[in-house]
């Protein structure tokens, strides 16, 4: 059976959920081979095996420790030479897309970015992309060389399928570009203590209805009562009320949590594009005609400044 390379996204060996989704999708195309770069392979390997990796190729070097993409491209290129895979799957993060694009150039093949599904086709892997806020769906395949496909987070539910996960060292020779860049300073982002937006089981998002940055603590309090991540509509982000990293939608992040609560958000098509696959959708909006209500499982027509604090108190009391 053909093998499929999966680039592992991790933090010090803790495998991030998008990688488990890629392993699940890779199994449709062949036997997943995980490529783990950096420190922490001992922690990661059992998890990768649990989600179907037949082999785990590992390489560790100081070059992998930082946000430097070229060393990772060198490593993936070495893995492609070793395995001759049917495809290379990479998470659709900013870093992942840069790695994938550079790899496709090196391989002289083609790249498909931001796929939301990958299936096996008669002539090779077929990637599905969603265009114009999910108004159109395209299916494409790479016609030359090894397909490199980046897949959006939350495109598949991770399913365990234990495999051997044999750990094998990967020999990597770094090119001049890999060693020509170094990190000179680091600024740590202040942690909110909340889960990562794209990985959270519950997301509470606020929109223009909040009327100002000073009211976002209402959203944060509700989120904290549920152990949720905080999201925002573009209107709220553009107004400077919340950081862009929290934007949900076509030009923000795609989330697919078990529960999505939209507060003071009208439900424009560009917002829906980032949250419509959530399992259960709840909206609080004072306008009963708001388009978000076409999408919801539960809707509350009411003033968010009354509903949200009451809801938070109720949840906290349980
Ligand atoms: P509004 O549409 O103004 O809705 C505010 C809602 O709050 C209303 O429904 C109102 O009834 C309700 N409300 C007001 N006061 C209260 C109250 N006291 N209690 C309860 N409800 C109240 N948008 C995104 O979100 N994400 C994207 O990634 C994105 N990408 C875009 C890309 C492009 C190319 C374009 C053109 C647009 C994009 N947009 C995106 C913008 C999108 O079209 C909408 O403008 C935006 O989503 C509106 O945000 P909103 O729902 O917060 O604001």
Automatic annotation (TrEMBL):
Keywords: Electron transport, FAD, Flavoprotein, Transport
Pfam families, per database record: ETF, ETF_alpha
Domain of life: Bacteria
Cofactor(s) annotated in UniProt: FAD
Cofactor info, note text: Binds 1 FAD per dimer.
SUPFAM superfamilies, per database record: Adenine nucleotide alpha hydrolases-like, DHS-like NAD/FAD-binding domain
Annotated Gene3D superfamilies: HUPs, TPP-binding domain
A biological-process GO annotation: fatty acid beta-oxidation using acyl-CoA dehydrogenase
InterPro entries given in the database record: DHS-like_NAD/FAD-binding_dom (IPR029035), ETF_a/b_N (IPR014730), ETF_a/FixB (IPR001308), ETF_alpha_N (IPR033947), ETF_asu_C (IPR014731), ETF_asu_C_CS (IPR018206), Rossmann-like_a/b/a_fold (IPR014729)
PROSITE patterns: ETF_ALPHA (PS00696)
UniProt binding sites for FAD: 208, 233-234, 247-251, 264-271, 285
Domain Electron transfer flavoprotein alpha/beta-subunit N-terminal: start-end pairs: 4-183
GO molecular function, one term: electron transfer activity
Membership in a protein family: Belongs to the ETF alpha-subunit/FixB family.
Role noted for this protein: The electron transfer flavoprotein serves as a specific electron acceptor for other dehydrogenases. It transfers the electrons to the main respiratory chain via ETF-ubiquinone oxidoreductase (ETF dehydrogenase).
Subunit details: Heterodimer of an alpha and a beta subunit.
Protein name (record): Electron transfer flavoprotein alpha subunit
Organism field: Streptomyces aidingensis
